[in-house]
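Researcher: Here's a chain I'd like modeled. Treat it as a single chain, no partners, no ligands.
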Amino acid sequence: MCGIAGCLSKDLISRELINKTLLSMSNRGPDNQSSLNLQFNNKKLYFFHSRLSIIDLKTRSNQPFKFQNFTLIFNGEIYNFREIKAQLISLGYKFKTESDTEVVIKAFSKWKTDSFNKFVGMWSIAIWDNKLKKLYLSRDRFGEKPFYYIMKNDEFYFASELRTLKILYKKQLEFNKSKINNFIFKGYKSLYKDNETFIEHVKQVKPSECLVLFKGKLTSEKYWKVSYSPNHKISYEDILNNVKYLVEKSVQRTLISDVPLSIMLSGGIDSSTILGIARKKFNKDFKSFSIIDNDARYDEIENINLTKKFLNNKNIKLKLNGKSKLNFAKLKKLSKYHFKPVLTISSFLSSLLTKKISNTNIKVNLSGIGADEIFTGYYDHTLFYLNVIKKEKFFNKNYLYWKKNYKKNIRNPYLNNEKFILQNKNFRKHIFETNLDINDFSKTKIVSNFEEKYFTKDVLRNRMLNECFYETIPVLTDQDDLNHMYNSIENRCPFLDKDLVEFVSTIPTKHLMGSGLTKNLLRESCKEYVDKKVMFDSKKKGFNATIQSIFDFTDKNLNNYILNKKSEVYEFVDFFKFKKLLNKKKYLNSESKFIFSVISTMLFIENFNEKNL
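Model: Modeled as a single isolated chain. Structure tokens:
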């Protein structure tokens, strides 16, 4: 895991700016930092790299890495690099390192952009072809590794992080008011419908995308895509066997490391399954880390302890303390590193936990990101599933299960009434409008123009694929990367696996939930690895907390800081209505999220306006 940056410009970059750029990347790679510049025609190409050493810790694998006419900088991990290396050796290639870096550049020399579809893993890659004078940029299939760029006035800049990009670009930039407004009032699921960012003129390389810069023109090609293509001939037994095999294989891939690993353990089945497979299948014994909240809505200590006992695992807990004045100071500091709003309360919690992990000198951490979107993990999935199967004989059995086990736990007012979705499969108000009153806080009229990309007429699978590529996974991987890199830790997500996702996309929807239980295929196929009570617990709490478990708003200094009328956030939010909300004794779940979004945006704007980053 590393940090990368670069630019193609007519200007000579000063040593001072080179050092400042590398310094801004130091969290992403404290083990080695270096830069390179090449001259061609009237332009200069600069590459910057900051290394966090995970595989082949020797200096021979430092970057920028050269081979023939190619120069590479690379952030990420290619989990199947050894298989690709063996293939290249059979074709006559020789290797001097044990790293995936050398495999990436030699695979590219052999197969060019087709090599990206051979890789299994996570990455942002920049390759310069000095012979053809072409710059290639590639991002992994699920956007696990960030990749930002600016193309303006025949100049091109790119980086792993927005803060680095702003430093390198030097010129004046403005924050994106439309993106801010959408985030505050429509939520994080509205943010990745396009490749725009919180900063004007800064765009993202899209997941599964390869960009090529040649003679001042930028072209794009998508090297991978997935759609719902059901195989109606496959048996349920074969489905379970394949799911088990592919989940095990993916976990095994993500265990490759020359440094110690850990896992973030919640009370749910996703992280418990990963830990169970690592422990029971591959005999890997590593620490788990968990957040404990006193709020009963989010407290998962019972399930965490059951998993700890079942797997004989060493679990380290972080107990939340809403009275701690340090929490707000931590959010301010984190926001400065993110250089955009910290998008969710869960993200902030994750940052607290990654800090605790880093204190134990662990450099690689696993998480269960992706299982909800791949296997059906959200409450609205249960209703869309019922909509899809409403003509099937087993509909009533599933519907009764939903009423008994799910309805009582749902806080979203739209999902409490099943008729919204059962009678109208195109109903989507529950996604942006979880609380009808929040739009009243806006100083402009909010138009809820929710858009969904079309993949398939199957409404559940279409929702899941949208979550996978446009709504939730892009947010989760973005925040996960930043929080881990802030603490110089590599993050890995075993469920975000090419082979696993491709196979699940062939499973007929009717098999996804069995008698009505979400993630039924994961539960049934991997039940030997998780305590039975945990594995078949239908209640979803999620990695979350109320904002009052984090901040003490009775603290006058904190209250005065947030209620500063001069803050630019109140160009978007009605100050007096927000003040009244903040002074409530207890918040609804949606109000808690809204308050956090406003505070987080306030901090981003402050950081953005600072002259010295």
